[in-house]
Write a structure and sequence with these properties.
This protein is α/β, with parallel strands linked by helices and about 290 residues long. It contains eleven helices and eight strands. It has one domain: Alpha/Beta hydrolase fold, catalytic domain (Rossmann fold, 3-Layer(aba) Sandwich). It has an eight-stranded mixed sheet, sandwiched between helices. Strand 7, helix 11 and strand 8 form a beta-alpha-beta unit. The longest helix has 19 residues. InterPro entries: AB_hydrolase_fold, LDAH.
């Protein structure tokens, strides 16, 4: 792989299928050329298709030293349409704990491949931030230098404005119904599917492409809905001892208008972890 990269002109990101603990994982990769490097592992929210974040991660990469800073973004298990030979059971749905273990396996594999001296940054969006924190909790001595939490859902997700609506929905409509709807939509001609998604969501650009052509499939929607149900049931009280111990590693970004991680979550964190007690960690609120 290194010889290929050295003697070829490759466009980034590289879209790869990365085997992680036996699972063929859809991956975006911005490789570094140096052996001594920092690796950013990006963990998406839900839906967990990493293609939603291509432009965002490309923007990060453009501002970093490409020789020593590597970015790898992974999709969640079961959230990919590009299934491969070893992922042939589309009836499988994965829990939140399954997704956490998958990201632990990703970190373990990266550390094995890159060596124990490699520094890692975990970056997560929404529930991806919760997963990143869980990885740090399980692997506190594996070279994780920072956890960047973007609009993080770290506590009491079911009683957030969006959480209330989603809880009602996933407790009323079975995941299989969403899967059937996805199957019907996936049979539509791509231009028709894209037009309907744009009309319904207002999306454009890469977000529209990912939703229309990668999200709206039976097994993907079943996994998205199943994961959402586990999120509502699992993400409850904050582990204060854990954050007190590790908050110097966290950078958290909140939005005043986010309905998954609302402003009162930011207020809660600043109250329980005031600036004078969090070392070099930062809590940021954006309008």
């Amino acid at each position: 792989m290194q010889a290929l990269m050295k003697n070829s002109v490759l466009c980034t990101p590289l879209r790869a299928v990365w085997e992680v603990a036996g699972y063929q994982t859809e991956t975006l990769l911005w490789p570094a050329s140096s052996k001594a490097k920092t690796v950013l592992l990006f963990i998406p929210g839900n839906p967990g298709l990493v293609e939603y974040y291509t432009s965002f991660l490309q923007g990060i990469h453009s501002k970093m030293d490409a020789s020593s800073f590597e970015i790898i973004g992974v999709s969640h298990k079961g959230h990919s349409t590009n299934y491969h030979e070893k992922n042939n059971d589309r009836k499988t749905v994965y829990s939140l704990e399954d997704q956490i273990q998958h990201k632990i396996d990703c970190l373990d594999t990266l550390r094995k491949d890159n060596g124990p001296d490699t520094k890692f940054i975990l970056m997560g969006h929404s529930i991806g931030s919760y997963i990143a924190a869980a990885v740090l909790k399980k692997r506190p001595n594996h070279g994780i230098a920072k956890v960047i939490a973007l609009f993080p859902t770290l506590r009491e997700i079911a009683i957030t404005p969006n959480g209330v609506n989603i809880t009602r929905l996933v407790n009323t409509v079975p995941a299989s119904a969403f899967g059937i709807a996805g199957s019907l939509i996936s049979y539509l001609a791509p231009p028709v599917r894209q037009f309907l998604v744009k009309t319904a969501t207002g999306q454009d650009g890469e977000g529209l492409q990912v939703t229309a052509h990668q999200l709206l499939h039976n097994h993907v929607l079943r996994n998205v809905v199943t994961m959402a149900r586990f999120e509502m049931e699992t993400v409850k009280e904050l582990d204060h001892d854990f954050y007190t111990q590790h908050l110097d590693k966290f950078i958290m970004y909140y939005s005043a208008n986010d309905k998954w991680a609302p402003k009162d979550h930011y207020d809660y964190m600043t109250k329980h972890f005031p600036e004078g007690k969090i070392g070099h960690g930062r809590l940021v609120l954006e309008d």
